[in-house]
Structures are given as C-alpha cells and as structure tokens.
Amino acid sequence: FEMCSQLQTQNQPVEYLFLFDGSHSYVAAYTQSYRAKLTPGNESEAETEALCAFIQQFTGIEYNKLLETLLPLSDLNARVSVAVDLITSAHRDIDRDSLHFAASAFYYKLKAADAYVPSAKYHGSVKLLRAKTSSEYEQNLGADYKLSEVCDGEVSVHVIEGDHRTFLEGEGAESIKNIIHSSLA
C-alpha cells in the first residue's frame, strides 16, 4: 500500500494493487488489544509479547511460560536469542542465523505496522484477498479492513478459504492465482 502511494506521489503509474489479508489497519487491530495489557513505555513488555507470538507459530509452549522466560531478559537481542533456542530445540533443521533475523524482523515489522498511518489517500482500485476465517479483531475492521477510508477507487474484496496463515495454501492459493490472473487478463 505505502509503496504504491509513494509511487503515485512521484507520478509513477500503479496499475494493480493486491493486498493479501491485510491493510493499513490490520496489524494495529491486533497490537492495540495487546498494548492495552502493557505498561506504557515499557519496551521489554512489547518485545516479549511480540516474541511470544513469534515462538508460538513454531512451538506449543504455553504463553505464560514464555512470558516468564523472556520478560526478565536484558534486551531484545537476549530475548531473540532465547526465542531461537526454544524454536530450534523443536525444529533442528531451521538455520539459527535466519531464524534470529526473522524473529528480530517480526518485532520491528509489528512495531512499524502498529505506528503506520497513511499520509495520503491511494488513488486507484484495490483488490483485497482476505481469509474466510477471521478473528474478532479482523471482524471489527469491517469487510474491507477499512481500506475504503484510505482509497478513492473501488475496493473489491475476495474471500478465500482458510485463515490468515493457511489461505495461501492448497485451494486458497489456486483461488488467489485465478483472481490475479483474471484481473490481469
């Protein structure tokens, strides 16, 4: 979204914009619910919350156990190192350096997305390919994830089987391929 908006400010054409189960408001909808539980300005709590979510994508470790393990650590790098240890203990085939980068990037991506507010409207149409199964956070955003607030063109929503993690697999991937192909034809 932001890259297309920046291209437009430079008078560069943007013919198509496809968004995959996300919008300018999507991440903030999640992070705001977590932020309500955090102490304002306490970066260690924010880092811990993000890394708990990251670790739970790979392991079945309970949230409270992760919290007890990560929160007392000195800084983000220490938390990421422990996250890598926990994940690679269950998945030995994952490269530690790549995982370290991914965990750090996950935190910084969430932090940036949480603070993101579009500076201008996007001038054009958007196709939102959204997962059929959604959480209460997504439902609170409405069918178009609030894209109509920041786009002056048509926002078309295509609902794809699966949830935020699985809609890019199997039948969902096939549906997405067909939607994109027919849009570009």
Automatic annotation (TrEMBL):
GO terms for biological process: monocarboxylic acid metabolic process. Residues 1-183 form the Thioesterase domain. It is an enzyme of class 3 (hydrolase). Its EC number is 3.1.2.14. InterPro entries: AB_hydrolase_fold, Thioesterase. It comes from the Eukaryota. GO terms for molecular function: fatty acyl-[ACP] hydrolase activity. This is oleoyl-[acyl-carrier-protein] hydrolase. The gene is FAS.
